[in-house]
Design a protein that fits this description.
By secondary structure, this protein is an alpha+beta fold. The protein contains 2 helices and 3 strands. The chain has a single domain, classed as Gcn5-related N-acetyltransferase (GNAT) (Aminopeptidase, 3-Layer(aba) Sandwich). The model has no long low-confidence stretch (mean pLDDT 91).
Length: 73
């Protein structure tokens, strides 16, 4: 398992991971109150382009994601 900074080749995988997570949260306890509006596809792309989006990969598959930013939003 490794944590890497995303590049544009990861955008679809990260977006898919977040969409699956949102569906799970909506069907269960959605404590962080995520919705399709947050994190949005645009905010994911922006985080990748700004160098703030990281992914955890295992065997080439994205299994986790995090934004490391000084912006509290």
């Amino acid at each position: 398992m490794e944590l890497i900074k995303c590049d544009t080749t990861h955008i679809n995988s990260v977006t898919s991971l977040y969409h699956r997570t949102i569906k799970y949260l909506e069907a269960n306890i959605n404590y962080p109150k995520w919705s399709p509006a947050h994190p949005s596809d645009q905010s994911i792309s922006d985080a990748v382009m700004s160098g703030e989006q990281y992914v955890c990969c295992e065997n080439g598959r994205v299994i986790g994601a995090v934004v490391l930013s000084e912006n509290p939003d």
